[in-house]
Task: inverse folding
């Protein structure tokens, strides 16, 4: 089995969580630049760090591919694992559909909207091909893209630095179209994905200390990836009423046509990087669910199980579903994605706290937090945010999630009936 080294881990983790600044327009449009700036400080503390700590702890304690599906099945049972997987994989599928959509949104604004379907297909096709070649190929391509994505905005930041430091009054503006639920969903989405590292834990050639340090490096890189373009674009276009989804590249052309052209390619590369790494972990999650013993996924998804390291059948199946989902509305996808993800994360935190209550401290791979109460305090802010996100969900999203979980429950019932028969 090919394993990722420290640099490979950082590049894959970066694209699992972030992958570029494209999407911060939604934060400014729905929350305003000031709350976006505050969020860049607060969200990593109350959302990212607890997820990263939980993921490292549980991944090293249950060090097999499959991540949260394995943790939850071992601690809470197969039914909880199935429901968590149904919400988590559905969230991942929607998440993957966002990247071809963003790719087409940015690019078609320059070459014409009639090419949007073809552009979406190109992202899915190339990402699928790279995943077929293996995780190390995914990692190498991610490293190249990571450097390329950040460069145009870093150069623009240096060019506009003197003007940027005089921006406080601009940040006092309110959002053009305030939508708290959309703002919260978008922010969580932009910092989400840490738990996916557990899905590929067997394919990482790193020590526990290296894994922890890598998460810290990625968190800093992600925050800078959002902060620098935010400062640059607010400086170039302080009138927030002119902002719209996909405006970053067009606005960057005010600083430099060359940088804007570079940003076009960076956009394409960034969305490909996000899709590329997301497909690698989602396909492995599907394969892990299909391979779990005594699970509904065994008979329902059994055809996707393969002895090979690269889960080819799962990769093709996931890519096909994503292609269909790219026809949906972007904003609706983001909210549905994060609502489903919130349900999955609640299952994960329940399993994490149950594990901390049952496991002797000296048996754990990492010793932070030192006590069960420390773990509860660490998880509490995130759990509050998850509950708030669920409470703010639109009725359309609630009904969609309810339907999905009822369907997952019916499959569980059918599995129980078949087992008895």
Result:
């Amino acid at each position: 089995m090919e394993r990722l080294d420290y640099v490979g881990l950082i590049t894959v983790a970066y694209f699992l969580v972030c992958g570029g600044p494209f999407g911060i327009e939604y934060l400014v449009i729905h929350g305003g630049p000031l709350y976006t700036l505050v969020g860049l400080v607060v969200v990593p503390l109350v959302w990212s760090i607890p997820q990263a700590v939980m993921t490292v702890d549980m991944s090293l304690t249950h060090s097999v591919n499959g991540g949260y599906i394995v943790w939850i099945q071992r601690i809470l049972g197969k039914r909880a694992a199935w429901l968590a997987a149904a919400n988590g994989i559905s969230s991942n599928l929607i998440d993957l559909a966002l990247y071809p959509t963003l790719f087409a949104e940015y690019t078609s604004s320059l070459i014409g909207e009639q090419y949007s379907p073809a552009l979406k297909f190109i992202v899915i096709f190339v990402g699928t091909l790279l995943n077929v070649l293996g995780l190390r190929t995914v990692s190498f391509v991610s490293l190249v893209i990571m450097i390329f994505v950040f460069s145009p905005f870093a150069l623009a930041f240096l060019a506009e630095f003197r003007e940027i430091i005089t921006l406080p009054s601009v940040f006092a503006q309110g959002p053009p179209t305030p939508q708290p639920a959309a703002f919260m969903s978008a922010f969580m989405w932009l910092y989400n994905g840490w738990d996916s590292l557990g899905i590929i834990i067997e394919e990482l050639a790193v020590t526990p200390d290296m894994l922890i340090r890598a998460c810290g490096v990625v968190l800093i890189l992600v925050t800078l990836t959002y902060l620098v373009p935010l400062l640059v674009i607010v400086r170039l276009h302080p009138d927030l009423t002119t902002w719209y989804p996909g405006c970053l590249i067009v606005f960057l052309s005010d600083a430099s046509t060359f940088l804007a052209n570079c940003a076009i390619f960076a956009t394409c590369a960034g969305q490909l990087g996000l899709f590329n790494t997301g497909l690698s972990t989602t396909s492995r999650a599907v394969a892990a669910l299909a391979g779990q013993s005594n699970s509904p996924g065994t008979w329902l998804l059994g055809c996707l199980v393969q002895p090979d390291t690269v889960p080819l059948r799962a990769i093709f199946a996931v890519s096909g579903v994503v292609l269909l989902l790219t026809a949906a509305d972007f904003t609706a996808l983001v909210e549905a994605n994060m609502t489903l993800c919130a349900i999955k994360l609640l299952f994960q935190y329940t399993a994490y706290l149950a594990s901390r209550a049952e496991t002797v401290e000296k048996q754990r791979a990492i010793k932070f937090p030192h006590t069960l109460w420390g773990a509860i305090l660490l998880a509490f802010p995130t759990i509050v945010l998850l509950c708030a996100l669920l409470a703010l969900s639109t009725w359309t999203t609630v009904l969609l999630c309810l339907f999905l979980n009822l369907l997952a429950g019916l499959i569980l019932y059918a599995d129980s009936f078949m087992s008895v028969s």
